[in-house]
Task: inverse folding
């Protein structure tokens, strides 16, 4: 039933059913008010001719009857020489014409009537009562001409095919532009900016496409302006920050050492925040895609964490080549690893990486206090922190996971958090295979692909 939830299926079904119901009602009206009256009129004429023929046959002398039978056969196609055996009842339900003929015969003779046929079904016979006797008269099955039931079925089948065919063509003309809009909207959500869509089709669809193209341009300009402003402001702040650093170093020896240390920590924190903002700007700068061995990248990051005193272990290492933006991949993994070490409570952080046929999966797990289920998506929002004191010692800036999610979305990857069995949290990065897309003219592919090697390292 899921297929019928789409606009295409629902609209096509609605139009097709409406046309089919109209077709059925049209045939019903034609049959009741046109076809059946003509059938009854024709059957009554044949019944009258058969009764008249039987009466004329009964009035003639025996020597005259053969000549009369030949003349009736030539002029009217009726036979008066029925076979002696082999006739069976035809049944009134076999044809509307037969039923109408039986009804007409009964009205004219005042007695019950029945149509008989031979085993080949080539001739039909009716017994006509005349003055206490019965005259059996036959007429050819070809006399009926058309087969009403077959004609009705063919007309219904043709009407159904045309109805649903027309509905599919009509709805497809509406559905295709909408599907293109959905596809382009998804690509814009991943940070891509495709070319403008063609403004074809009905006026309403063309107007919608024009508005969407205008929105696409505005979003592109807005993001470009935001990124430029963010990078520019962050870069310009580095100059006064450097002067502040220089001023702190030039403080007199009489300055309180605790105050000087606090100023240095504040300056370092400001510099770190500025670096985070620059990361966001660089993450959407259209970095070129390169072939990377992801295990090498993970190994370098783990070595860096270990040198700084963090406890980190790599298990389940597999060779896996990905085509990705190097800085984006490193930022995501570094932010996830830094988050696990920071909130892991000093316990061992484990990193697992495996390659499957259609994706590469990296898991970074810690044994910290964990993240509540209702907060596992909220922590990916910029500046959102579980610890609300805003102190650097108890939490970061709230940008690490936000940057990881934005970079992953821009590349078509998946980043998520989940509770770890036994306590703690597990961050998961999934890089799908075979989903490379073109970001636009003159830009590199924004989505990585994976080449899996079976060899375990």
Result:
């Amino acid at each position: 039933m899921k297929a019928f939830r789409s606009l295409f299926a629902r609209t096509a079904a609605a139009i097709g059913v409406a046309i089919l119901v109209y077709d059925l009602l049209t045939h019903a009206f034609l049959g009741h008010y046109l076809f059946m009256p003509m059938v009854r009129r024709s059957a009554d004429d044949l019944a009258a001719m058969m009764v008249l023929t039987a009466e004329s046959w009964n009035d003639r002398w025996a020597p005259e009857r053969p000549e009369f039978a030949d003349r009736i056969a030539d002029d009217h196609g009726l036979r008066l020489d029925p076979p002696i055996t082999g006739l069976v009842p035809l049944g009134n339900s076999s044809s509307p014409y037969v039923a109408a003929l039986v009804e007409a015969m009964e009205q004219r003779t005042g007695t019950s009537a029945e149509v008989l046929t031979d085993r080949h079904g080539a001739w039909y016979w009716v017994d006509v009562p005349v003055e206490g006797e019965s005259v059996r008269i036959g007429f050819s099955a070809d006399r009926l001409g058309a087969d009403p039931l077959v004609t009705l079925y063919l007309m219904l089948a043709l009407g159904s095919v045309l109805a649903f065919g027309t509905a599919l063509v009509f709805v497809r003309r509406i559905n295709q532009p909408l599907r293109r809009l959905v596809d382009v909207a998804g690509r814009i959500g991943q940070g891509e900016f495709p070319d403008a869509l063609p403004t074809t089709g009905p006026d309403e669809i063309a107007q919608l496409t024009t508005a969407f193209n205008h929105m696409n341009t505005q979003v592109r300009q807005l993001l470009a302006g935001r990124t430029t402003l963010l990078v520019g402001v962050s870069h310009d702040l580095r100059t006064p920050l450097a002067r502040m650093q220089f001023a702190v170093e030039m403080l007199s020896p009489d300055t309180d050492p605790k105050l000087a240390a606090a100023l240095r920590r504040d300056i370092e924190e400001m510099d770190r925040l500025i670096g985070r903002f620059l990361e966001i700007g660089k993450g959407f700068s259209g970095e070129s895609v390169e072939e990377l061995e992801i295990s090498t990248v993970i190994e370098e990051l783990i070595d860096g964490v270990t040198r700084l005193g963090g406890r980190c272990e790599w298990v389940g290492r597999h060779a896996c080549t990905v085509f990705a933006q190097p800085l984006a991949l490193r930022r995501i993994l570094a932010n996830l690893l830094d988050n696990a070490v920071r909130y892991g409570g000093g316990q061992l952080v484990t990193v697992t990486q495996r390659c499957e046929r259609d994706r590469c999966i990296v898991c970074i797990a810690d044994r910290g206090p964990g993240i509540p289920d209702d907060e596992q998506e909220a922590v990916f929002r910029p500046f959102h922190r579980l610890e609300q004191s805003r102190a650097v010692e108890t939490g970061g800036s709230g940008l690490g996971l936000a940057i990881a999610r934005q970079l992953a979305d821009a590349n078509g990857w998946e980043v998520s958090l989940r509770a770890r069995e036994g306590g703690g949290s597990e961050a998961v990065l999934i890089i799908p295979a075979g989903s490379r897309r073109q970001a636009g003219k003159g830009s590199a592919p924004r989505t990585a692909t994976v080449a899996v090697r079976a060899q375990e390292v």
Confidence is low (pLDDT under 50) at residues 388-394, 434-457.
